Fold this protein.
Amino acid sequence: MSDPTQTALTFEEIQLFRHNGYLKLGNCLPEDTVERLKAAIWKDINDEAEPVVRDSEGRVVRLSALVDRDPIFLETASSSLVLDPLESLMGPNIELIKNRHNHATLRLSSEKKSGLHRDVKQWSRTIFTVLFYLEETNMENGCTLLVPGSHHFPGITGKIGEDPWTQTLAEQAVPAPMPTGGLLVIDSMIMHRVGQNKTSNSRMSMTMGYHSVDELNDMPNPKRIVVLGEGLYSGNDLKLQK
Ligand SMILES: O=C(O)CCC(=O)C(=O)O
């Protein structure tokens, strides 16, 4: 795969990410990568290759377990285009998470409006999510909307919009239009939602979750893949065993 260099993030970009909870990355996926990803996604959608999620009309709108499908998915999710900026945010040892996100979604025209949500519940267990936009996304076809800074709010148990303090948040969501091949990294505690697709076309994206290697866990986790650095362990029980 051709892999344009994505430089490490600047201090200002890192600060913006920490402050706002999201960052549009400077470089896009190369055109040929986008085409390979879309072809692999369309193939599995047309074959209805499980595991899939269907909409109320029975149409396949999501492919799950993406990294166990065509190798292009893992290749893209672990390319330096993604890992160079992630390393600036997460350090040198990074795992890709197989049981959160790890899917491709076809957003079709829909009357239903989705609500704000978080991808994780508590700030001490947050992950970072990368959204790979395989088609241009804008206000018409339902670009992602985010509430800047909402990743700093405490964990909540109910649905966003149920407690009085979260009720007004929907009004604060800002749109994040993205070009074809664009990459958006979010702190998964940020409150966000997908916009409404008011066109007759699809809006295709791929979503992957990442975590820094947990240096206090020495149990192999088959639902994680180390994609950068090493799966090191530095618990202080090592000293006690000597
Ligand atoms: O596709 C989008 O715009 C948002 C996706 C999303 O909210 C999610 O996968 O949790």
